[in-house]
Fold:
Amino acid sequence: MSYELLGMTVLWIFLFGYLIVASIDFGAGFFSYYSVLTGKRQLIHSVIERYLSPVWEVTNVFLVFFIIGLVGFFPDTAYYYGTALLIPGSLALILLAVRGSYYAFSTYGSRDSKVYMFLYGISGLLIPAALSTILAISEGGYIIEENGAIAFSFTALFGNLYPYSVIILALVSVLYISAMFLTYYAAKAEDKPALEIVRTYALSWALPTILASLLVFYAIQRHNEQHFMNMLNYAWMFVLSFVFFLIAVILVWKRTNYGFAFIAVMFQFGFAWFGYGRAHLPYLLYPYLTIYDNFTNPAMAQALVIAFIAGLCILIPSLYLLLKLFLFNASYVKGMKKQKKA
Amino acid sequence: MFTYDPVLFSRMLTGLTLIVHIVYATIGVGVPVMIALAEWIGIKRNDPYYLLMARRWARGFTVTVAVGVVTGTAIGLQLNLLWPNFMRVAGQAIALPLFMETFAFFIEAIFLGIYLYTWDRFKNRYLHFWLLIPVAAGSCASAFFITTVNAFMNAPQGFDLIDGKMENIDPIFAMFNPAMPTKVGHVLVTAYVTVSFCLGAIAALAMLRGRRHVYFKKCLRLTMVCALVFSLASTLIGDLSGKYLHAYQPEKLAAAEWHFETTDKAPLIIGGMLTDDHDVRFAIKIPFALSILAGGTPGTVVMGLDDVPQDHYPPLRTTHYLFDLMVFLGMYLLLVAVWYFIADIRNRKQGVPIHKILLMGVVLGAPFSVMAIESGWIFSEIGRQPWILWGVMRTAEGATTSPHVDTMLWLFAVLYLVLTITSARILIRMFKLNPVEEEIASLGLEGGPAS
Structure:
């Protein structure tokens, strides 16, 4: 495997990690706010809070890691995307800032404000919308290089079906992934009333997820035919993704094996994510930038890979410890060992 | 001034983000170390007050760390959004430390989450203490890696520049550049000084308001001993930084000192005014001191600005005043720490009470230490101008060409203002609603049943 491909694969794995953990977080924020509106807050809030509290900082790092790594391996991405994405990038950043800090403020600041809850809930939808737009932009047609200057066309972006289809898929997926996870978590906590609510959420977002995926297929075929044809070459990955979707939904429907159901959800998105990514290669930005353009020098690529492996050796046990203490520890999950903050 | 210039606005926005972030980053580097000290002493001496101190500091830390994460993410992204051309070139050489910084932060975030939610969960109290070590190590490692990047911008090495592209890169050599040791040392040590004073000031303020609990005394003693040790260290490293500048960036040192003629026995200039003809007026001059700062002996020849092309000058007035301010504030902090040390010994041996003026001095030390950090960083950044990469790339060449940086500047200004005010309000509320005395009583530490 070439360094170019290796680097991109590693980054894509991290972005997949972000997709899963951030979706859980974003969706949970939204459900949390939604439950305030529908008066079911006391039923599901404690389940959501118990999971989110210890892990929220970790979520952010996945994204930062991806961006730093992307620019590290492919310095030209800074030039193309950095120049073009000042406004959308800054807006996404402000939303992330509002979300991260206000979550901490409302949780640790011991103040239950409706405004905080609203900001927290709504940013959970706006951030995936903003971030998925960047994926849509990578398909080309919105960033134009002319006479050595990079320009970004908002009119082209918002006058086109494709970005909307991606945004819809992102939003629906966030809610689906999150609800699926919360179903598993509530089942583990043996919290029956909460389980009933989040299970309904999960099942009701299942079909829209598939419909939204089909819409994206349709839109990408019209927008970037080459990418679509590439995706057909890896059709088996998308078929497998669908199979795992069915497994997940059937298990939840039959009220058994919620843990397996969530693993199936991860495989569902994993196959789709890597199928999409593999077909996207070699382009980082269609048609200007491939992973082979101005790849970082061999010495740096080697250093980054070594640093990455060394980092993983520390990271994986640490993540395992975190999960063991807060996710797989039955008495914590059930709230028996729930402690006052700090 | 009012024609739109993306370079100017990019500098302003980056500067703004850094000015905000450095406060939270400093707290983020220093506080875990202080919490670890307090918890360790608490366990070792079986002293519940130190354990409570660690607990209360950790509780406040959650709020500042949130803003630190957020502003840190901001600067990480803005580096790409505002300086795409710089990252395109320099990214070839500095990717490694940036990458490792993220890893270090990853570890810190994971263990902080675990630490905060596992008080009293382990039988062996040392287990909980050990969880803090990765947090403190992670935050200090973050500071280390990110400072090597800044050091690289001051003393770039480890590559050959061929047609505007960096080739033959040695990532480790680039990281361990000549500016690195003094910069990293200075950043870490001054973070500990600042945090010592900020935490000490809280106790001193309580004592000034007539609260007599032994908790405050213990808190003040711990923080001021740290302040003394780290202030001394930062003075030493500051001196070494002068020697580094003399050897590698003499222009920066000359600008900070308004030193125009290359000469030995150079005097150190404090304050004063600079005329447009480069005449220094009303300044205090300490004979030989600049030569000693630069090379250790009065005979050291210090390069003057007359030997530097004018278009390589950093802004002379700003650099000089900021440098003086940093040194003055640093000296103030050192003096207060020394005075406290003496007063504390007399207090213990002869029962002489700690003087109110000293307590006020400690309280003042909190804003002063933050100002010292800010002035030091702004001095270092402005003193590097006109370069973004010393001698290799000018700041103007590195910036974005986007026409919307000004709008983003206002947006982020509002964001930072709201974040700063809210975080301060929440911290104040958090501790006002739950004063130490009440928490001690509710934990049953005094009189009541032992918990």
Observations:
- The CA atoms of residues 60 and 136 of chain A lie 21 Å apart.
- Confidence is low (pLDDT under 50) at residues 337-342 of chain A.
- Strands of chain A lie at 143-146, 149-152, 283-285, 289-290.
